[in-house]
Design brief:
Blueprint lengths: L1 E5 L5 H10 L3 E5 L2 H4 L5 E4 L4 H10 L3 H9 L4 E4 L1 H6 E5 L9 E6 L9 E8 L3 E8 L3 E5 L4 E6 L2 E7 L2 E4 L9 H12 L1
Parallel strand pairs: 1-2, 1-3, 3-4, 4-12, 5-6
Antiparallel strand pairs: 6-9, 7-8, 10-11, 11-12
The protein binds glutamine.
């Protein structure tokens, strides 16, 4: 089993450390030829979604990754990664993958610091630590989207077919259950 981590910008190294500590082989996607290699799952990290979206477009990665996800590649999008998956961005368009029928609000907790830590129930898992950094939340979900977690009545984690999207940073809170969920969808 090999997990690819999108390594253009943002918190990709922290995801790699988590995978390493769990004994999971990983590779980085930095350019088009990496995306043509064989891998079993994909992680889209947090960071700055506008920058990542532009890089994905400029490096010709958007169509390849979009097709792989639509063809069933298990994917985990965290924070900015969730924004890249959303097919509807409230307040501003930008290049992105748009593979999940959800509406996401960027910087939903305010533009300034607005970083916080909490614990909340993750469906099927129990209470898990969640770290939010200039985080989005999910305003609306489309058909077939399952809500996995809410914080203060806002949706912060969802699953749609082979795709998992979370507003928070599991890699900064040693929240292994999110990775286990992704790996389970590889073996389904
Ligand atoms: N605010 C960032 C964005 O809109 C996301 C922040 C993060 O990934 N921690 O892209």
């Amino acid at each position: 089993m090999k997990v690819a981590v999108l390594a253009l910008q943002g918190a990709f190294a922290e995801h790699e450390q988590m995978l390493e500590s769990m004994g999971i082989e990983y590779m980085e996607i930095r350019q088009e030829k990496d995306a043509h290699q064989s891998f079993d799952a994909l992680i889209l990290p947090g960071g700055e979604s506008t920058v990542m979206g532009k890089l994905l477009r400029d490096l010709d990665l958007l169509p390849i990754l979009k097709k792989k996800i639509e063809d069933g590649l298990p994917v985990l999008g965290t924070c900015a990664g969730l924004i890249l998956l959303s097919d509807n961005l409230s307040g501003g368009e930008m290049p992105h993958l748009a593979t999940m029928p959800i509406t996401v609000k960027r910087n939903a907790y305010g533009r300034q610091l607005c970083s916080f830590r909490t614990k909340a129930e993750l469906k099927g898992v129990g209470s898990v630590p969640m770290v939010f950094i200039r985080a989005p939340y999910i305003e609306k979900i489309g058909e077939g989207v399952e809500i996995l977690a809410k914080v203060d009545d806002h949706i912060v984690a969802v699953r749609y077919k082979n795709q998992i999207g979370v507003s928070f940073h599991p890699e900064l809170a040693d929240c292994r259950s999110i990775y286990q969920m992704l790996l389970q969808s590889v073996t389904l």
